[in-house]
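Let us work through a complete example step by step.
Step 1: write down the sequence.
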Amino acid sequence: MRIALYQPDIAGNVGTILRTAACLGVAVDIIEPCGFPFSDRKLKRAGMDYAAAANVTRHADWAAFHESLPGRLALLTVTGGTALPAAKFESDDVLLLGSESAGVPEDVHAAADLRVRIPMREGFRSLNVAVAAGIAVSEALRQNGEWPE
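Step 2: predict the structure and record it as C-alpha cells.
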C-alpha cells in the first residue's frame, strides 16, 4: 500500500501525510514539481520528527512516477464513480491524491484503475487532502488486514 501526492501545493499537508504514513507503515510517492521547497519548515513542523521515518520516493514528474507504478492506481477524487465504502482495495494499490489547487489533469484521471470518492453530506464539496488520505488509507489497510500491530 502506498500514498501518492500529485504536485502538492501545501507543505503542511504533505508533512501531515508523511506523519500519518510513517505511523501506519505506508510508503509515500511525491510527484513533482511541488508548490513549495521540499525543505520548507511548514513541512517539517507538520510532520514533526515522524516525517524523517517515512518511506518517501520523489519522482521528477508524472511519467517517471507512472513508469514505476507497482500496482493499481486508485485516484481519490470528488468525481469518483466508486464511493469509498464500496471500493475494493488490494494490498499493492497506490492511493493517488491531486494537488490542493487543481487536483489532477485529465490524462492522470484517465490512467486511474479505480476512481474513489469519499461520501460527504450534501452541500460540501471536499475534504482537506491530508484528512482524505488518512481516511482512505485507513479503509484500504483495514480491508487488507494490514494495520500495524
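Step 3: interpret the result. The beta strands are 2-6, 27-31, 56-59, 73-76, 82-83, 94-97, 114-117.
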